[in-house]
Amino acid sequence: MTDLYAKYRADVIVAVHQEDQGEGEATTPITVGHPDYVLFLAARAAAALNGRSCTPLQMRRALRQLGLFENVQAYVASLPAEAQEAWEYASTMPASDPLIVTACAALGVDRKALYDLAETL
């Protein structure tokens, strides 16, 4: 199932649209979970959140306060062992981390709002 249409330049996504742009605008159908899209989101997150980060404790407290902790735990449990270890043993939680970007996208979580809250806890 195609969720999005990506415009590539030098094998890197430079724009994403919800609809095919038609003639004159070469786009490629992709899904939300496509690795190139995850990298695109990570790059945008890094720029939009200006290198913001929080501690794992702040992240877990924010997720609990938002009622999302159990959903995130279930999502992480469905990931490969290396991703689970990254979640469990990380010393920082950068907003641009692909695991954070992917989890937020999959669960419909606004990263900016999550980090705004986490940084206050």
Quick gist of this model?
The chain is an alpha+beta fold and 121 residues long.
List its traits.
single chain, about 120 residues, alpha+beta, 2 domains, three-stranded antiparallel β-sheet, two-stranded antiparallel ribbon, 6 helices, 5 strands
SSE blueprint and pairings:
Elements: E1 4-9, E2 12-17, E3 28-30, H1 35-48, E4 53-54, H2 56-65, H3 69-77, H4 81-89, E5 93-94, H5 98-107, H6 111-118
Antiparallel strand pairs: 1-2, 1-3, 4-5
What does this entry look like structurally?
- The chain has 121 residues and is an alpha+beta fold.
- The chain has 2 domains: 1-31, no CATH class; 53-118.
- Helices cover 50% and strands 16% of the residues.
- Strands 2-1-3 form a 3-stranded antiparallel beta sheet, covered by helices on one side. A two-stranded antiparallel sheet has the order 4-5.
- It is elongated, with a radius of gyration of 16 Å.
- The mean pLDDT is 83.
